[in-house]
Amino acid sequence: MSEQITSAAPLTAAQAPDGEEPPPVTSGTTGAPGRRRRRSWRRVAFGGAGLLLALGVWQVAALIIGDPVTLPSVTGTVREFGHYVTHRYPEVQGKTLLEDALISTGRILAGFGLGTVVGLVLGAAMAGVRVIRELADPIIAVVRPLPPIAFIPLLVVWFGIGETSKVALLFFGVVPVITIATLGALDAVPAELVNASRSLGASHFHTMVHVRLRAAVPGVITGMRIAMGGAWTSIIAAEMIAATGGVGFLILQAGNYLQTPLIFSGIIVIAVLGFVFDGLLRLLLRAADPTIRHS
Predict the structure, then answer these.
(1) 3-state SS of 118-134?
(2) CA-to-CA distance for 231 and 106, rounded, in angstroms?
(3) Distance of CA 181 to the CA centre of its chain
(4) Strand partners, 132
(5) For the whole model, what pTM was predicted?
(6) Among 145, 248, 280, 285, which has the minimal tally of Cβ within 10 Å of its Cβ?
(7) 164 CB contacts (<8 Å, ≥6 apart)?
(8) By the 8 A CB rule, do 282 and 139 touch?
(9) Residue 5: left if φ>0, alpha if ψ -120 to 50, beta else—which one?
């Protein structure tokens, strides 16, 4: 048996026959970072190629239709986008495209941030206290399917068309999603982790904060990504119905005057901002769970 083990072991320089180099010892993980980098560049390359293809199809379709009101060209949209980044629309009482983007972003940060904090606390309380779960679960089950847009007229009656109604709309839309995501992530934490913490003398609260919540972070962040998409849908709809600023208001005003290139410019702003926020949450997810490479 010892002879078989010795023969199977890799040769060293002293054991190798005269005039021969010992075979290199390779590891299964060697080159893994390089492969990951190549995959990342591959994704970037194919993603860029896909965007360029979509823009090419858009440009060709616009040339075939020949009506900038129905479908403006890519070049015309870029020209309008660059113009209204620094110029107001409408010219009398409107704002620049950049100002409207900042207004919408501020509303998203306020409503989404408050909703995330409350949803996280409520989900943790439901997972840790059975009475709270039994009381809150039916309410969450009833509120969750309701579209936040349906509350816009009611919120306008309560809070007017100012910032409070917009933040409240986002808050009511985000809380159920984050609550359900937090509760599901906490319920999925292995019981062995909880039992090990309790057996070492940790209290129920300490176990919840330092064991269950930390293990549930990836699931919570995934819920945040879902809630972020819904938040953008809600705020754009609210700005179209009851607002005096924001990207949704800009798109509505542009539509009233058949400024189709400006409509596309507003849509591009929404897409870019949504992509940036989702990218930040994906980076946070990778930091919380290094095993996740692509999400």
Answers:
(1) HHHHHHHHHHHCHHHHH
(2) 12
(3) 14
(4) none
(5) 0.77
(6) 145
(7) none
(8) no
(9) alpha
Closest by CA to 177, choosing from 111, 272, 245, is 111
Residue 69 makes CB contacts below 8 A (sequence gap 6+) with 258, 260
Q: How far apart are CA 48 and CA 52, in angstroms?
A: 6
Q: In Å, what is the CA distance from 58 to each residue of 53, 71, 200?
A: 9, 9, 63
Amino acid identity, position 221: I
With b for 16 or more beta-carbon neighbours within 10 A and e for fewer, the 148-157 pattern comes to: bbebbeebbe
Run means of pLDDT, 10 residues per run, the chain, 295 residues: 43 48 50 68 81 89 88 89 86 84 93 94 89 91 87 87 89 93 88 80 78 85 91 89 86 89 92 92 82 54
What one-character DSSP code corresponds to residue 148? G
Distance CA 166, CA 104 (A): 10
Whether 148 and 232 have beta carbons less than 8 Å apart is answered as no
Q: How many angstroms separate the CA atoms of 66 and 84, rounded?
A: 23
Spatial distance between the Cα atoms of 36 and 142, rounded to a whole number of angstroms? 44
Phi, psi of 95 (to 5 degrees): -130, 165
In one-letter notation, the amino acid at residue 124 is A
Kindly report the number of other CB atoms within 10 A of residue 55's CB atom: 13
Residue type for 97, please? L
DSSP symbol at 93: T
- CA pair distance 14, 20, nearest whole angstrom: 10
Helix (H, G, I), strand (E, B) or coil at 258: coil
